[in-house]
Structure prediction request, 459 residues.
Amino acid sequence: MKTDNTELFEKMPVSKSVITLIIPTVISQIITVIYNMADTFFIGQMNDPHRVAAATLIMPPFIMLTGIANLFGIGGSSLISRSLGVGDTEKAKKCAAFSIWTSAAVALAYGLLIYFLRPVIFPFLGADGNTFGYCADYVLWTIGVGSVPTVLNACLAHLVRAEGYSKESSFGVALGGVLNIILDPIFMFPLRMGLIGAAVATMLSNVIATLYFIILLHKNREKTVIKFSLRNYSLKRGIPKEILLVGFPSFVMNLMSIVSNTVLNKMVVSYSNQAIAGMGIAKKIDMLAFAIANGMTQGVLPLIGYNYAAKNHSRMRATIKTSFVYSIAVAFVGAVLLFTCAVPVMRFFIDDSETVAYGQNFLRIICTTCPAITVTMMIVTIFQATGQKVKPMILSLLRKGCVDIPFMIIMDAIAGANGIPWATPISDIIAMSIAIILFIPYWKKVNKTILNSFKTVEI
Prediction:
C-alpha cells in the first residue's frame, strides 16, 4: 500500500519536499512556544515575581511530558517512515498502535506520580513558602489532569508527520497553541482564576488538539497506517526495542534538560525570585529560536528515513545538505534578532526593572548558541532517521547535564548570577564539536555508498 504522499517522498524536487515538510512544522513549533510564552506573559501582567517564579520552577517536570511524547513519537515516526520506505505497512500499523497506547499509559502514571509526590518534589525544584502553593495549583491541571492529552497531542503529531502529512500534523499542534493563547486571558482575568486559569487553559487546549488528531485519523482510516485499534498493538517483531532505542536519545535530551534546568533554577533562585523570574522569561523567549531549529530538523526526519530505507541514498544526501543550509541560515538570523532586541522583549513580558535587568543579560548570552544548537539537532535527527542508537545518545547526554552543570558551578563561583548562563554556550559549542566529529565518518560512508552504486550501474 502506497500512502498519499509517495510523490513527496520519492519524486518531488528535494528543496520543495524539504520546504513542504519543514514550514508547517516550524510554524506549529513557533505557535507552541508562543502559547508557552503566553502563560508567562499573562502571569507576568500580574506583576508578581513569585507567580512567574512558580511557573518557571514547574517547567522541568512539565518538559518531561515532551520527553515522553518524543520517546514514543520520534521513535515511532522513524520506524513508521522506514517501514513505509520498504513497503511494510503492517509493521507500520503495529508501530503506531504501540506508540499511542504505551505513551498514554506512561503519561498517566507520570502525572499521578508528580501530583502525589509534590511535597517532596517541589522543595527539590526550588519552591519556597512564597511559591509552593502556586506550584501546586499549576501542576494539578497541567500535569495531574493534563498529562495524557499533552503527551498524546505531541506524539500523534510525530506519527502523522511520518506519513508525510506535515500540514495536518502542524495544524493540530498549532490548534492547541492558538486555543491556549485565547483561553489564557479569559480564564485568568474575566473569570478571575489567576494562575490556575493559565493552567486550566493549557490543559483544555491540549485536550482539544488531541481530539482533532483522533477525528483526523478516523476520517482517514482507510488510507492511514495510524490506527487506535488495540488489535494492532504488538510487542513482537522488535517493535518496542526499535522505537525505544531510537526515541530514547530525545527522551534523554529532555530528561537531561530537566536536570540542567533544575540545577540552574536552584542556583539562580538563591539570589532572588526576581533573578529566577528574569531567567525564566529569557529561557521562554530563547525557546522560540530552539523551536525553529527543532521544527526544521523534525520536519525532514520522515523524508530522510524513508529514502534511507528505500536505499535512495543520493536523495537522502540531497535532503540533508538542503536542510543544513536552510536551518543554519535561519539560526543566525534568530540569534541576531534576539541579541539586539533583548531589552524591549523583556519589558514586553514584565514591568519590573530588576527582573528585566537579569533577563536581558541571560537572553543575550544564551541566544548566541542558536547556530550551534541547530547543527547538533540536525545531526541527531539524521542519526535517528536512519535508525542509529549510540551516536544520538552520546550527543543527548553531552548537550545537557553532563557538560553544562559543571560549567554552571564554575561560572557561578567566578561571576555569580550573571555568570551562570555562560555555561549554555560553552556546553552547546562542545556538543556541536562532538556532533561534527561523529557525523563526518558517517557522511563519508553515505558518499561512498552512492559512489559504489554508480560504479555498479556502469558495469
Notes: Residues 16 and 149 are 33 Å apart (CA to CA). The chain has 19 helices and no strands. The longest helix spans residues 273-309.
